[in-house]
Design brief:
Structural class of chain A: alpha/beta
CATH topology of the largest domain in chain A: Rossmann fold
Oligomer: homodimer
CATH class of the largest domain in chain A: Alpha Beta
Number of domains of chain A: 2
Order of helices and strands of chain A: EHEHEHEHHEHEEHEHHEEHHHHHEHHEEH
Strand content of chain A: 5-15%
Shape of chain A: elongated
Number of strands of chain A: 13
Helix content of chain A: 25-40%
Strand order of the largest sheet of chain A: 3-2-1-4-5-8
CATH superfamily of the largest domain in chain A: Crotonobetainyl-coa:carnitine coa-transferase, domain 1
Number of helices of chain A: 17
């Protein structure tokens, strides 16, 4: 099979802002789809204005929007709306994450769209879905993390914090992506599109599944344990002799045996029945953490990681963002590409899935409305123009 | 179009453990695929043994494995291996996340599988991918969060913490899911499967995209701000008069205007040029947080949320896991289903994507090897049996 872009030939219209829809459609563009991002002429996507770090562009916007065409349309104007409708007639997919009620106010309620455009896959992202007491409420990543209980299992027991990675947004982007792909696969067989709704709140609730099971069945309410896990032990971060932090993890009784016997050289602990079962180790987490830290602080990071490798125990270095940017695991595996922008080429990561059969498309970060003229010329034949 | 399961008729073989592959294949089962989970007879999936919270089953295992068949096979035994090979001949998809090198040691290296089974979609999940200095290293969620810099943007500047939601695992599950679906869509057109590799480390690096852009382009290195965001302000958690915590978020200059003028009643702040631009508000975050907290502590949570709704400002309650389990937004929208287990029915959430055209399959949590006999009878005709 020759190398090809699996979504080549598909047209995706994006009525999007922030992270959840833009990350979804960026991955569709990575896979070869033509993504037409419809932005309001007055400023466009909010993330364009977060900062000017990337040669005048915002860090978020540059991350999420390369490979797309930007079309500036005011959907309340007749002229622009006709062009948008013409776009939808040719499109395979519409992804949207506007504020609650915004699509309906524009006369673009998803169910109506599906009736007008039977071929269309519509993925409508919202904060809280349709119905229920909160469906009118605006939703941002932090708000959904907080409402969904995620902050209460992160940090320390009396100091809930949010995940720095915007997991509600990114998780929603990835469920939206799989929804588009499920619907496209289905369309190959049925000949019809569909409407899929994805609510950020449902996404966080799904990601909380293990914690929900604890609560629903009378287990201990999971508490945050900083760098540790409420479910398995030992699992955490420990200081080293050379001033680094090593992270060590075990997730089974067998691994605990190897950690104690082969890494720490503590056959007495490996044989101690108080520590045989994971649940008992979880209860005695702090005792084990102290024993491990006493050992790690006597060794350098490199030595610990080499010994851990030999013992078959997972280890990592606690890196910061600067370390990640220079990480040899990314450079050695050629994970960086260059993408164009109005201000010159910038580095960007390749998308996580790798197949030698797939060509990844690396397009440009568009200026607001950069493709309005081209798209109008291509899709707007016979329609009103702004000069009429 | 009649309601149907979009992946009905597909056979998925899962050589899986923990979270990343099991969540991927659970969603394939939700969508109608037949998922055959191959587990080692000596204990099976590690997560079976984390705890016994759910009527004797572990919270993680019950969350991730309903709707699958469990087949206990020792792939180093000739008899079991013949059955496994027979399964692969009929399968559409193989998803695996064994330890580094384990597939190759079993003679199941993905590229060889693709040559033997041209119809097969193989998604191979690893910690660090193929090549580079770390490709031999074991990977768990915490290890990848730490190595990927995620802990350094979570918590407080001198106290990095991990996200309680296992984002490296779950993000990888969702990229694996979209990879399966992309490859199935592609197979409809090319007639051939493919091999896709997804590395947990690449997933976390992708999720760090905004932070990487800051570092790559000489912006400020993002620091964690507990419940806040390093990118936008005001955005955070504030105490209320009735002892609750309200979370408020703004992500644009327009929202800041509404927050200051309409919610706080502070036209002076709305007009103050020091706070006009997001970047300036980020630098003066603590001043704004103090002003907001002085106001929230004089009002009850319900009142604040009603006023925020009217002002068009997003708000949320800081919930814990118990709150989430009883959340009206889940019950009012019928987001709970019952799934069977060997110990009776238990509640489980429906998957996040909702389409009125899709039937969601809600199957049973399998006991280890519960379906070995059935699967052997169905796929093992003419093969050796364990009694030969």
């Amino acid at each position: 099979m020759s190398v090809h872009a699996p979504l080549d030939g598909l047209i995706v219209v994006a009525l999007e802002q922030a992270i959840a829809a833009p990350l979804c459609t960026r991955h569709l563009a990575d896979l070869g789809a033509r993504v037409i991002k419809v932005e309001h002429p007055a400023g466009g996507d909010t993330t364009r204005h977060y900062d000017q770090v990337v040669h005048g562009m915002a860090a978020h916007f540059a991350w999420l929007n390369h490979g797309k065409e930007s079309v500036a349309l005011d959907l309340t104007s007749t002229v622009d709306r006709q062009l948008f409708d013409a776009l939808l007639r040719e499109a395979d997919v519409l992804v949207s994450n506007l504020a609650p009620g915004a699509l309906a106010r524009l006369g673009l309620a998803p169910v109506g769209l599906a009736e007008q455009h039977p071929q269309l896959v519509v993925v409508d992202i919202s904060g809280y879905g349709v119905g229920g007491p909160l469906d009118h409420r605006r939703a941002y990543d932090l708000l959904i993390q907080a409402e969904g209980g995620a902050c209460f299992i992160t940090g320390e027991p009396d100091t809930p914090v949010k995940s720095g990675i915007p997991i509600a947004d990114i998780g929603t982007a990835l469920y939206a992506l799989s929804s588009v792909l499920t619907a496209l696969y289905d369309r190959e067989r049925t000949g019809r599109g569909t409407v899929v709704s994805v609510a950020m709140f449902d996404v966080v609730a799904e990601m909380m599944g293990f914690a929900l099971n604890q609560v629903l069945h009378g287990g201990a309410v999971p508490v945050p344990v900083r760098m540790g896990s409420p479910m398995v032990a030992p699992y955490g971060a420990y200081p080293t002799r050379d001033g680094e932090t090593v992270v060590l993890g075990t997730t089974s009784d067998r691994e605990w045996q190897r950690l104690a016997r082969d890494l720490l050289g503590r056959a007495d602990l490996a044989d101690d029945p108080r520590y045989t079962r994971n649940q008992d180790r979880v209860h005695r987490r702090s005792e084990l953490d102290a024993v491990i830290a006493d050992w790690t602080v006597e060794h350098d990071l490199a030595e610990i990681q080499e010994l851990a490798d030999r013992a078959g125990i997972g280890s990592a270095r606690l890196n910061d963002v600067t370390d990640l940017a220079a990480h040899p695991q990314l450079t050695h595996r050629n994970r960086w590409r260059r993408v164009e922008t109005p201000a010159g080429a910038i580095p960007a990561l390749l998308p996580p899935p790798i197949s030698r059969d797939w060509r990844i498309r690396s397009g440009r970060v568009p200026a607001l409305g950069e493709h309005t003229g081209v798209v109008r010329a291509e899709f707007g034949a016979g329609l009103l123009s702004a000069d009429d």
